[in-house]
Write a structure and sequence with these properties.
Rossmann fold; 5 domains; 16% strand
Length: 688
């Protein structure tokens, strides 16, 4: 049977081409050299047979263009040039954790993550380089002869190729866009249908980033451009630009709307009042007068600064909890006007100047019957709506609680505004406390605000993956762990950070912290990231022993033995081939972890998947896949498969690492075994 490379995922272009072949076979022409030509006229004719000459080619249109755009798109989906190297010694709680920290260029990391996490990430937050004069462009600062060949194949002229060479790592709009484009394309692939991405940026590239995101995610999926207020500087010549931005895009706003997704956050203090009401309700039943008196007494004893004091306008208690009155007139005026008879006198109440909030009397009557509209003692004055102080979502359901309570959500929760403060001093203080008063990282993001944003856009969901591929000091991981500590959630994080060197002269304190305090041979930002997560996790673990504060570390590396990414034969010498044959045919225990974890990616399994040893050096189970690294007796394999099935944990696939399984008889026997067990050929996969 055919042997597949370990890391082999079709590109979006290949997938789209297959769709075109399926829908418009007459429009796809393949030349003898394998090149493909798409006949646009044939597609036009298929779509509109009555008007075959109606093909229109737009010469000008609204789009974002820059030199190098085609190359940037192409670079997103080229085969991975790196492998993952597991680093258990640098990790925390390797066997149990669901979190990841990846060391390396995030473009390589995203290409690899796409194998296992396609459509699996709920939330992405990134803080990329802002392309300012103080930014050091440390990504993709080389330009190889191979890259020149690729650009020529993509149709670039010699002049354009020279220009693109010059913008690699340069602080130009074109260079920055070429840097961001492939990363955002891959990020979109990783998002779930209900996923959201947050991107921090400032004025240097905000305009360009907005256009780029409109293209990548779709203008219809733009949600907001948030404003981070960060304080003023008096040394500005004109205006003090004391703000940054955060662009917010959904993977699919249509999906969010169809699923009636609503983003709200509780107003401070509502939870405390509601919890106290539940306590009194359980003690006093339906005695609303007694509950109201005790609730008022409790409320009066709260300290002046308590957030519940903001709810001092609530009036009384009924079977649905504490409530306050809300305006029943049409907001802004122009509401309907009709007679509403008072419940006691039956005389019409005064109509508000702005009209009633309900469009018809029938709806008003329904609200009155539900007990949600209350009449005043002055029989001529308009009634008012009850609005109950009930936190959303409701966590405690009591018998006879009325579920149709209009106004609760408006009262107890609020839509977050687009303007908020970045508490830089709080962030710096938190990081300095973690690092023993050392100033190890400049301008860390605000852990509290990031946590609030994560909670806000993931209502009723505490089990998902958050990705940050510009990890910096590790704020996102800290925020995720703190949220889990607060509500017992199972959120997981994936962080990627390039090992950016720390300048010993410009960042003396940070360099000394990594080199001397941590004792690392190389002072890089990655070591700051990892240590931040370790220390923040240990702090939280002391208070919440069951909390997952661990993380698996993987380093992106070249394939030293060419066991996963083999050198193309066209580039290999006879000596290369001989060396490769020897290396491939000689299993080494030290190579096992690397092979196994790259096989996880090949089979689309998370890198946090636990590997269970079935037979040392030969058989390993990961979820519902059996990895076969060396030939075993087929009868033993039969017993294993049957035992797993009987235990209710059947194996769905056998993944054979072909370079170490040279026994053709074993492969044929395994294929026959699967047939006798009623399993199809596609359950057996050859990798390598």
């Amino acid at each position: 049977m055919p042997q597949e490379p370990i890391l082999n995922m079709p590109s979006p272009a290949a997938h789209k081409l297959e769709l075109l072949r399926e829908l418009f076979p007459q429009a796809i022409e393949t030349a003898s050299d394998g090149s493909v030509r798409v006949n646009a006229a044939a597609i036009q004719q298929a779509l509109d047979p009555a008007n075959p000459d109606g093909l229109r080619v737009e010469e000008d249109g609204y789009e974002l263009r820059w030199v190098g755009k085609r190359e940037a798109y192409h670079s997103a989906f080229v085969p991975p040039a790196k492998i993952v190297q597991p680093c258990p010694a640098d990790s925390v709680d390797w066997e149990q954790t669901g979190n990841l920290l990846i060391k390396g260029d995030n473009l390589d990391a995203l290409r690899l993550l796409r194998h296992s996490y396609f459509g699996q990430v709920k939330l992405i937050y990134i803080d990329p380089p802002y392309n300012t004069q103080s930014d050091a462009f440390i990504y993709r600062d080389d330009f190889s002869a191979k890259q020149s060949h690729v650009l020529a194949q993509l149709g670039y002229s010699a002049d354009n190729i020279d220009y693109i060479k010059n913008i690699y790592g340069a602080r130009t709009h074109s260079g920055w866009l070429s840097f961001m484009y492939p990363r955002l394309l891959l990020a979109k692939d990783l998002l779930r249908d209900d996923g959201v991405i947050f991107i921090s940026i400032d004025d240097n590239e905000q305009a360009q980033l907005k256009l780029l995101c409109d293209e990548v995610f779709g203008q219809e999926n733009f949600i907001s451009n948030l404003i981070w207020e960060k304080g003023r500087k008096n040394d500005a010549k004109f205006f003090s630009n004391g703000h940054e931005y955060m662009l917010v895009y959904a993977k699919s706003q249509v999906y969010l709307r169809e699923n009636q997704t609503l983003w709200r956050e509780e107003k401070p203090g509502a939870r405390e009042i509601w919890d106290k009401y539940i306590e009194l309700r359980e003690g006093h039943g339906a005695n609303n007068a007694l509950i109201e008196n005790e609730l008022q007494a409790w409320f009066s004893e709260l300290p002046k600064g308590h957030p519940s004091k903001k709810w001092s306008r609530y009036k009384r208690v009924d079977q649905n909890g504490p409530w306050r009155d809300r305006d029943i007139s049409w907001p802004g005026g122009g509401g309907p006007r009709y007679d509403v008879p008072h419940r006691i006198t039956q005389n019409p109440c005064k109509v508000p100047e702005r009209g009633w909030i309900y469009s018809t009397y029938e709806e008003m009557k329904r609200q009155i019957d539900l007990g949600l509209v209350e009449f005043r003692d002055d029989h001529t004055e308009p009634p008012f709506r009850k609005a109950h102080i009930r936190p959303i979502p409701q966590e405690i359901e009591l018998e006879n609680l009325n579920e149709d309570v209009e106004g609760e959500e408006e009262l107890a929760t609020q839509v977050r505004g687009s303007y908020f403060y970045k508490q830089s001093q709080v962030s710096v203080r938190h990081l300095r406390e973690l690092f023993g008063k050392k100033n190890a990282f400049n301008n860390p993001k605000d852990t509290e605000e990031i946590a609030k944003l994560i909670r806000y856009v993931t209502p009723n969901d505490t089990d998902f993956i958050t990705l940050d591929f510009f990890a910096g000091s590790g704020t996102t991981a800290d925020a995720v762990m703190r949220l889990n500590a607060e509500d017992g959630g199972n959120r997981k994080f994936i962080l990627v950070q390039i090992p950016q060197p720390i300048d010993a002269r410009k960042q003396k304190e940070a360099h000394g912290f990594v080199s001397h305090t941590l004792g690392k041979p190389e002072a890089t930002i990655f070591e700051i990231t990892a240590e931040r997560i370790r220390r923040a996790g240990a702090q939280l673990k002391a208070q919440h022993p069951a909390l997952d504060t661990g993380f698996r570390v993987f380093e992106l590396a070249d394939d030293p033995d060419a066991l996963i990414l083999q050198k193309p034969l066209s580039d290999a010498t006879q000596a290369d081939v001989a060396t490769l044959q020897t290396a491939i045919a000689t299993p080494q225990p030290s190579q096992l972890p690397r092979i196994l974890h790259n096989l996880l990616l090949a089979e689309g399994l998370p890198l946090s998947t636990r590997l269970i040893v079935v037979r040392e050096h030969s058989l390993y189970r990961a979820a519902n896949v059996l990895f076969i690294l060396q030939a075993v007796d087929t009868e033993d394999l039969r017993i294993l498969l049957n035992a797993q099935k009987a235990a209710g944990t059947p194996l769905q696939h056998l993944s054979v690492y072909a370079p170490w399984v040279a026994d053709n008889n074993f492969l044929l026997g395994t294929k026959t075994l699967l047939e006798t067990l009623g399993l199809s050929d596609d359950k057996l996969r050859l990798r390598g």
